[in-house]
Amino acid sequence: MKYFYFGFYALFIKNFPSVNSPNALGSKLRIFFLRPFLKYAGQNINIQTGITMYPLWNISIGNNSGIGADSLIFAADKVEIGNDVLIAPQLVIYTANHETRRELPMIQQGMKNAPVRIGNDVWIGVRVTILPGVTIGDGAVIAAGAVLTKDVAPYAIVGGVPAKQIGERL
Fold first, then answer.
1. What is the pLDDT of residues 161-170, one digit of tens each?
2. Shortest CA distance to 157 belongs to which of 134, 136, 131, 135?
3. CATH T-level assignment (fold) for domain 2-99+115-168
4. Model pTM?
């Protein structure tokens, strides 16, 4: 029954159109079908169309948080999204990456996992990439197109590739 439930979500609900609101029918249907599989799902969550998240049991989403359309969350390790987080479309989060030791050919190397943590009251712009092991502090702002390879301090504004601090929230 569990596979049927998730299959129905993947075929019909994942791309069900909706406006950008946690009260929209599409968003409500998506969270209804995803909630049993997520590690934690708070209240008033906005999940937009076309989001791919796997495995779901490693993902926690706090209250009043939203994930923009066509985002990808690959959660080989934990992904924790805090409360009141705004995430624009096409976010990419990876919690695993290939090892890069010199003594072995790349194809023979394993994967290295590390969690991603996003604090409370964070704004993440469109097409941001967050790599394994990154923690984003409370109140941070991540500029569009940024690639996060290192932790972000609370209330910092970061941007660029790789992301660097370009300001501070006042």
1. 999 999 999 8
2. 136
3. UDP N-Acetylglucosamine Acyltransferase; domain 1 (2.160.10)
4. 0.94
